[in-house]
Specification:
The protein is mostly helical. The protein has one domain. The chain is 72% helix and 0% strand. The protein starts with a helix and ends in a 17-residue tail after the last helix.
Length: 101
Amino acid sequence: MSDPRMIIFAVCAVMLTISAILALYRIVRGPSVLNRALASDLIVSILICALGILIVSRRDEWSLPIVVSLSLLAFVSSVAVARFMPRSRPVYSEPHDMQEE
């Protein structure tokens, strides 16, 4: 009989692989730069999850600094994309009755 933990790790690996393939598809076919940027951020998140599964399955912490570094990189890239994307409409506009005459 197989170890139940190995079955869970295999299921997680299959789910992460399918997610990575779908994210790569979005990078290739994305209609906008924002979709491609979000898909690349998703790829980094999938990589972080895969390394987390590897850490748990092998019971060692050799790649923990890599996971922390990738998490910081993903956060900074998400903030940069959100900061530099042009807005489609103004953030704030005064109501017509509040404008000075």
